[in-house]
Here is the input.
Amino acid sequence: MPPASNVRRTSANRKARIIRSGLQKVQSEIPWPTPKGCNQHTRDVRYNEPKGLDVDGFFAKLTDFVKELSAEEQRGVAEQLSEEELALFDLLTKPEVDLTDKEKAEVKKVARMLLQTLKEAKLVLDWRKKQRTRADVYSTVKTVLDELPRAYSTELYEQKCDAVYQHIYDSYQGEGASIYAPH
Here is the structure.
């Protein structure tokens, strides 16, 4: 088992990446300069992340910043999921599916794997315009979601496949373009 400081460092770095992507999205959506405190904190986190603070100091600064986030952003950080991973996780777990903590971790893994697979190879330019590419994306969704825990009945699995595919169709244009990408 890795030392506690390594676990905290990994956790802190993951949370920093999630927060950084959220900040970039928020900053790109605001047409005026970002408030001074937000920019200063962002610079502090970026400057001090690899050096300058020990892991505990960095983690403390990061925890203070997380307290300032919205409830949904806090939930994403707590679940250690990006905004788009959290959207898939919610689609797969709501309405409430009775899952153990281990099964929830498996669902998170499946959500990450699905996004990675789709982004790397399936969501090509204009993928929604051709039947073959739409079918390929749907087939990938079904294949990856087949790794969901057995708590998902066959009927629930089919419903989740359809819901996730519709979300992907509505949210991802292809070639990196999506509702989650900074504008």
